[in-house]
Amino acid sequence: MPYKFYSVDQIEEDIAVLYDDDNNKADIPVSNLTQNIKEGDILRFDEEEQIYTIDETQTKREKSVISQRFNNLFKKK
């Protein structure tokens, strides 16, 4: 399947700043994306259909990893 994944780094006015797995930046109009996107979401881009959708499973996984890293930074020894 021709998918590419992007993380939503930030949303500035009507532009979403996305990064792919190779850390390439893409500025995409919010109107071209799925509704209800938030910073930190992982988007799956279908190259054939030219459609972005939120990958709920990958988003939850990434947020969990980030949360664990954050907690480990402040864990008392």
Descriptive notes:
The protein has one helix spanning 56-73, and strands at 3-12, 15-20, 25-29, 42-46, 51-54. It is an alpha+beta fold and 77 residues long. The chain has a single domain, classed as OB fold (Dihydrolipoamide Acetyltransferase, E2P) (Beta Barrel), CATH 2.40.50. The model has no long low-confidence stretch (mean pLDDT 89).
Low-confidence stretches: none
Largest sheet: 5 strands, antiparallel
Distance between the termini: 46 Å
* Number of helices, where a helix is a run of at least 4 consecutive DSSP H or I residues: 1
Secondary-structure arrangement, i.e. CATH architecture = Beta Barrel
Number of strands: 5
Write the layout of secondary structure elements.
Layout: E1 3-12, E2 15-20, E3 25-29, E4 42-46, E5 51-54, H1 56-73
Antiparallel strand pairs: 1-2, 1-4, 2-3, 4-5
Considering the chains and any ligands shown, give keywords for the structure.
five-stranded antiparallel β-sheet; alpha+beta; OB fold (Dihydrolipoamide Acetyltransferase, E2P); single chain; 77 residues
